[in-house]
Amino acid sequence: MVERKERTSHRTAPEHTHPDDVPILTALAALADPVRASLVREMAKSPAWTRSCGSFDVPVGKAALSHHLVVLRGAGLLEQRDEGPKRFNRLRREEFDARFPGLLALVLREE
Amino acid sequence: MVERKERTSHRTAPEHTHPDDVPILTALAALADPVRASLVREMAKSPAWTRSCGSFDVPVGKAALSHHLVVLRGAGLLEQRDEGPKRFNRLRREEFDARFPGLLALVLREE
After folding, report:
1. Which residues lie closer than 8 Å to B2 by C-beta, 6 or more apart?
2. Cα–Cα distances in Å, from A13 out to A8, A24, A68, A80, B92?
3. Is-contact B104 B93, C-beta < 8 A?
């Protein structure tokens, strides 16, 4: 328990980029990857803040998943916050849609 | 002159992919590259079939340019045809817009 608490409290809070500060090519590159598209689709089907990082069903290891989540944060697609030992996720749908109208819908309509 | 003619007649006609057969992630990956986005933007500013491959102002060599054009064809973004020794280009704007509404506009609004 102590070890878990320590790990949590020492974890750096995630850095976020607002969609308004994201160039279109960064947004496209973030969504062009099949694992990241899958993460976005999973989040779109779940209410905000209900998905922990461990809950995603993607065929990659922990380090790769972590990298993909960093890319999604940097593209203004993902907000994360820590609650105890877990990190929870929210798709920034409204903000991203306002910045890039229709883009997310194109990704979500295909599986 | 003979050499030029021969080179032309032996060139393989370009293979095309219709936008209707392109998955969204392929379209996103094609547009996420800065050189390809630049080619698309240049074509969007010119009437159809007025741009030869040599007319594009992009900072890459001939082989790299050729590769980028293949990727654009494969994403349903580019139609090409040979006229004598030159290959001319057309952005498939209408077909691509019909398949992925709004996507091209997002790329073209930013330079």
Report:
1. none
2. 10, 26, 17, 9, 45
3. yes
- Dump pLDDT digits (tens) for A3-60: 444 455 557 889 999 999 999 999 999 999 999 999 999 999 999 999 999 999 999 9
Using alpha carbons, list the distances in angstroms from residue B7 to A81, B12, B55, B82, B84.
61, 10, 19, 12, 10
Contact A29 B25 (CB under 8 A): no
- Show the domains of chain A with their CATH numbers: 34-108 (1.10.10.10)
* pLDDT (tens digit per residue) in B19-75: 999 999 999 999 999 999 999 999 999 999 999 999 999 999 999 999 999 999 999
Q: Which residue of B has its CA nearest to A109?
A: B24
When scoring B25, B38, B100, B104 by the number of chain A Cβ atoms within 10 A, the one with the most, hence best to mutate, is B25
Handedness of CA A31, A24, B24, A102 (dihedral sign): positive
ipTM reported for the complex, 2 dp = 0.89
In B, minimum Cα distance to A108 occurs at B24
Per CB-CB distance under 8 Å, the chain A contacts of B100 are 106
